[in-house]
Amino acid sequence: SPRPIGYATGFLALASAQVAVGIAHLPSVHLPLGVLMFGLSVLALARPPRPGHQGRSIR
Asked: 20 to 30 A from 18, CA-CA: which of 2, 26, 29, 30?
C-alpha cells in the first residue's frame, strides 16, 4: 500500500527540516515544527486499523 510510504516520506521531510532549522538556530520555527511532528505522530498511532487489515503476524 502506498499510504505508509507517503507517511514515511512526509515524516522524513519534516524531520530533515527540523534538523536544518535547529542547526540554523531558529527556535521560533524549530519548536512549532517539533510540536507539529509530535501531534502528527500521536494522530497516526491513534488511528484505528483499516477494516480487513490484520497487519503483520509472527509465525
From this structure: 2
